Amino acid sequence: MNNKRLSLAEEAHLLDAQLATRRLFLKQCSMGLGALAFSPLINACTSDANGSSNTLFDPTKPLLPKTPHLPGKAKSVIYLHMAGAPSQLELFDYKPELKKLDGQLCPESLLKGKKFAFIRGVPKMLGTIGEFKQRGQSGAWVSHYMPHLAGVADELSFLKAVHTDQFNHAPAQLLMQTGSARLGRPSLGSWVTYGLGSENANLPGFVVLTSGGQNPDAGKSVWGSGFLPSVYQGVHCRSHGEPVLYLDNPANVDGNMRKASIDAINQANQETYKEFNDPETLSRISQYEMAFRMQISAPDVMNISDEPAYIHEMYGTEPGKESFANNVLLARKLVEKGVRFVQLFDWGWDVHGNSTDTSLEIGLVNKCKQIDKAITALILDLKQRGLLEETLIVWGSEFGRTPMQENRNGLEMPFKGRDHHADAFTIWMCGGGAKAGTTYGETDEIGFYPVDGKVSVYDVQATILHLLGFNHETFTYPFQGRPFRLTDVEGTVIKPILS
Amino acid sequence: MGVLHPLVIHFPIALLLLAFFLEVYGLSPSGKKYKASIPLITFLGGIGAVFSALSGYLLMNQGDYEVSSVELHRNWGIALAIGSALLIGLYRFPPKIPHIHLLGQGALSILVLVTGHLGGNLTHGEDFLSLDKPKKEPKQIVLNQDALVYADIIAPIFEEKCVACHGKTKQKGKLKLDQIENVLKGGKNGFYHVSEEGKMALMSHRMRLPLLDKQHMPPKGKTQLTEKEIVIIEKWLSLGASSKLLLKDLQLTEEVVSASMEEKNIGKTADWPSVPDLAAVSETMLTPLRDRGMVVLPLASGHPLLQINCQSLSDFSDKDGELFKGLEKNIASIRLSGTRISDKSLKWISGLPNLSKLYLDNTLITDEGIALLKNTTELRYLNLVGTSISEKGLRTLSSLPLLKSVYLYQSEVKIEDMAEIQQRMPKVYFDLGGYKIDTLTMEVRTEEK
Known about the structure:
Largest sheet of chain B: 7 strands, mixed
Radius of gyration of chain B: 35 Å
Oligomer: heterodimer
Shape of chain A: globular
Shape of chain B: elongated
Distance between the termini of chain B: 74 Å
Number of helices of chain B: 15
Largest interface: A-B, 50 and 49 residues
CATH class of the largest domain in chain B: Alpha Beta
CATH superfamily of the largest domain in chain B: Ribonuclease Inhibitor
CATH architecture of the largest domain in chain B: Alpha-Beta Horseshoe
Structural class of chain A: alpha/beta
Strand content of chain B: 5-15%
Strand content of chain A: 15-25%
Helix content of chain A: 25-40%
Number of domains of chain B: 3
CATH topology of the largest domain in chain A: Alkaline Phosphatase, subunit A
Number of helices of chain A: 14
Order of helices and strands of chain B: HHHHHHHEEHHHHEEEHEHEHEHE
Low-confidence stretches of chain B: 259-268, 443-449
Low-confidence stretches of chain A: 47-53
Mean pLDDT of chain A: 89
Mean pLDDT of chain B: 84
């Protein structure tokens, strides 16, 4: 440019002339459109919490109760996940034909093109050990493994032909709980708390309780929040000792002092938020505040020893111990107080037959003893409190077991056991708008493949969301430039089991 | 390439009209400075026109359209492409004729408008632009058992919801639904859909796909078929799709139809009162309740009925009933579990005409209070767990026509009195609770090795 200073009029004239040039027009066009196209990419990984009307997430009040799309029948969920996969052929899926085939070699036609986790070569068929009876007025099949549950069979709604596409524990658990066999998606409980918030501001909206000595194989991701704000992840309570650590004030610290220190921390966080504008900071602030409120409310709710003796008798609970029964009772207390989603994992159901604990004859009996009475008590206890109508109980696992006896490494096993089976297994629901006393779906004569009423893991998820009032196809969260949903591109609501 | 046609055409339309406008504007002194840009705009518009014509020609040959109806649009389009090429030539080698560019642009604009209009008619239907369009009343299907299924019921449905894309002028997927012969012929994929479950009419399959499925028909965004219509079309197809079938041959009962309707409207349940005329309450009216610590939510987004939860408020008492003034009609569910209310509160509660669910568990209410509830005729659910209600109070509930379940665990109601009460109210489920579970043992044969 020349060094001569332009007068105001000349400058205006120059700009006007520039505006009329083709060069400037094209330049602006290309740059402008490029910038336009690029801008969503910059924000792709953030959850665009600033002003997007597409999310239900309010970082200052992340757990504020919210309304679903439709009037839902269920207001809360207790999900009982038997990690390891119990044998549906011993508990609910009665196959007399299989009993006749016991000990015979499995026909090649069943093995063709199939992959098993442990079965090699040609295994033998294994007849069911369960002694089945049709129970109640609905005539649902429940075996002698579950004598108490058999008494409330008319309350249950069975899905007998659920299938998944994963035959190893961790990916199958992830698929069941997060809708994807890979890590990184939010869990069912996170979706529900994100969509509905919690009616109790003093407790977490999504509580996880584990028993059986180990966490599920897929680790804590099965209750993770994935790309949803982290405030929606499950709060894992310890199963013995204090359920939540450090709820009591340390020695020589009183409530006021505690409050003052939390206020100070929050103030520091507030300043961080002003500087970096990260909504996760706001979540953290609200979590601190909730933790403080939990100091007052949680010890009361989390303590099952205050329950009367006949309730302990009913559930078979022993306060202080780590047990599934204790967790079930705790789940009832939490739901009663307005917690949205209680997820129970019970470990130890992987009945391969390679040791006493994993045998169908002994291990499975012991596991069933641990849950049978407690689950029955949960159903009846919620019922007598008038809460079963609005509490959905889901019992299930990540997959089922084969009709063949496992022959790990081609050898005969010391005990009776079955391998992982993804093609057909049983899940049941109860209360919360599931139709009591129904059985939907049927497997073939040996329980290998579904023949009728085949439903997928996604269908189960869609149904749970439907009962809570969500349309699973429009319940989405924007992430990486596209809306995500729990059921991804799959899932149909299983209408025959809706009441 | 053909599918680009609807996209590409917008460029020549806008650019060529703009060139004409600038040509006219150039007649005035202030418009002079833009004159230089006209050849460029015309050039770009001309290229667009040629591309449009090419892509249009390809689209036509894809066979979704009746050749005769497209012909006119095609001819005008070709003329437009040639005209714009000529005009570009006129700018490059300007002849010495006054206003030749203006005249050329004017003529071309007329070509643009006519071609565009003809194209629009093809996409949106002949009567797209007419202002006095007769408003189509959706035809009600009357179940006159002697009606001809195709002529009287299905043809009008197709006419209303399908032929715009599958008709005489336009045949997407080579499917025509204007005549019964064409219906039976099917589209480019034939009439049948063969799946694992067997053979069914492709049409039934497409209609039943989820709305978000790309193959679902009618496509997302267009008027959908109602459940009743789908049921009738399906039944007709499965019975051979003859034009002679009468409605009674389908053996559709009112119940079948209405049952499938209900299934469709899964959001509308008998759990809540039907309140078609009730308006939703403004958020500001709910603020005092929320400030008091209650959870107040509509049943579903946009629903006028509210559910209110006061459970966590241990200091909630009779005088808080004041807060609900003006909301009486909107309250469908109220949870007062464990609050300090007494019989006095039943006064305002009994004034809630749409109350469907009421939780009074673990409160101080008595039989006298419960007797006030006899006018809440929409009540379906009543939780009296842990109260001093006795069979005397229960008797007063017999005037509630919709009452479905009453929970009485830890109340004063005795099991001996229940037989009589159940007789008075046979439809109601009473739960006295107090379940005991005997410890059962599993008799298992253990075959130790």
